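not sure who needs this but someone in the group chat was asking about N,N-dimethylformamidase alpha subunit domain-containing protein from Acrocarpospora pleiomorpha so here u go. i didnt clean anything up, its just raw.
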Amino acid sequence: MGLSIQDEFIRANRIRALVTPELLAEARADPPRARRSAALVEVLDFLRRNPDPELPRYAVLRTPDGFAVVRRAPVRGAPPTPDGDDRHTTRREAEHAVLLRRLRDYGMLP
């Protein structure tokens, strides 16, 4: 079970067109909510409201050497698994890495 037919249509025909290098730069800059472009708000809303159960779910964990992106376990109570060896110095950098992973999972980034 993936996205609904309607959400798949929105992903393919609306959201994919909004994901541009400029939008990714804006997301990396992390403007205050009041200053986010309509395109960034739409992309973030889509990603937040549409967790595809067939795709990984990510979380950010604090580690002794920064922040790490992990994959949440599909079974409740099981520990998360690291998603790569990279560490981020700030939580914001790690959250941006999660955004990029989610976009890649949906086929909107190479």
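also The chain has one domain: 5-106. if thats useful
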